[in-house]
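Action item from last week, closing it out:
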Amino acid sequence: MTRTPDRLPHGPLPEGPEKRREVEAMFDRIATRYDRVNRVMSLGLDKRWRRAAVRALELPPGSRVLDVACGTGDLCDELRTVSHSPIGIDLSGGMLAAAHTVSPLVRGDALCLALPDASVDGVVSGFALRNVVDLAAYFAECTRVLRPGGRTAALETAEPTNPLVRAGHRVWFRTLVPAIAGRLSGDRAAYRYLPRSASYLPPTDELLQLVHAAGFDQVERRTFTGGAVQLIVGTRR
């Protein structure tokens, strides 16, 4: 029987196809309460982070932008506020069913985007990189669907470098978030798994190199909230 996150041991996290199945099942389970819990986890700062990601695209109004792992559509809505034309894609049918956006949404895999080559001006994602099975393949797909000169912006969790801030962040993210969010969502195991999933992310230098190797220039990393959140941006060569 396939393991689901509520039965995951405290050992190694799943990889490959097993990770894909478990991530999909987990988000299906928490979809209806995801938005509420997300506000609590981010202390209400998530909207500010999304605005920063949209600004970082530096695209003119009317640009066609793909939101990968769009969830319930928060980034799609943020893109619409600046007159972009967003399209959302997500692996989880539960998340798409709970979506509140009016933007067009598609169920699909981030590693096999159902779009033609060079068909969008921008690609964004919000806290999705750690849930992707193969980051190199993901960034290659972003390159494929972006027009030359198009932009990508990926929000993700990070580890603060300041020792005091890092210590506080660890208590919040690894201990308090699983307890509080687990109680609010009714799925404690999912919110124990999500902080652990940050270990899927490679070190900063390696992550930026993956983006550059996939075909992006002007690759840079920005941080927010004391370094607890990072934004990776780049321009398609």
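Closing note: The radius of gyration is 17 Å.
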